[in-house]
Write the structure tokens for this entry.
Amino acid sequence: KQEVTQIPAALSVPEGENLVLNCSFTDSAIYNLQWFRQDPGKGLTSLLLIQSSQREQTSGRLNASLDKSSGRSTLYIAASQPGDSATYLCAVRQNTDKLIFGTGTRLQVFP
Amino acid sequence: DAGVIQSPRHEVTEMGQEVTLRCKPISGHDYLFWYRQTMMRGLELLIYFNNNVPIDDSGMPEDRFSAKMPNASFSTLKIQPSEPRDSAVYFCASSRQATNEKLFFGSGTQLSVL
């Protein structure tokens, strides 16, 4: 059974710092991995999707990498801003149409 | 497109009452998913549909839960009778046919069962 773990559970950093969020999964047979952002009281917004054949994806200040063989993905946020404060979740898709979500990392960026 | 639309945004009901949550997926999306989110269990997939057909309902916790998708633009999740432990945020999400497509979420329904 696939298990997705995110470390740390919470992170508080000053504005301007570069930071890395981690996601690990137990079964490397995945189709893709997505990183989502969730603001309080809101739904999830997909940030980046990495196909199993890809190593990384970039969008603005965000960069996500994928190492399937080791069952790991990282989300790199450059020059963090208070507006980046949210919960970040990763999710993997296997040989079904279902996404398996991690428990998330709650990020706070203070001025 | 307006995105995935869910209603109501908040629902407060008493134990034993029937609750119906509604979802309108993004036009052209063939997959629709119902998730439940709690602090203790995180995001759990309840059921999903492909082209209006239920594919996997193994996440539905009990027979008290049922879901329908009568057409491509509408789905309901019903709880009857509701219990306090059903209190959670219920999300609907949709995506295109291909498996390598992003998933789009609605804003969720905050359900409180007293």
In short: The longest strand of chain A covers residues 44-51. The interface with chain B takes residues 31-32, 34, 36, 41-46, 49, 51, 89, 91, 93, 96-99, 101-104 of chain A (CB under 8 Å). Chain A has a mean pLDDT of 94. The radius of gyration of chain A is 13 Å.
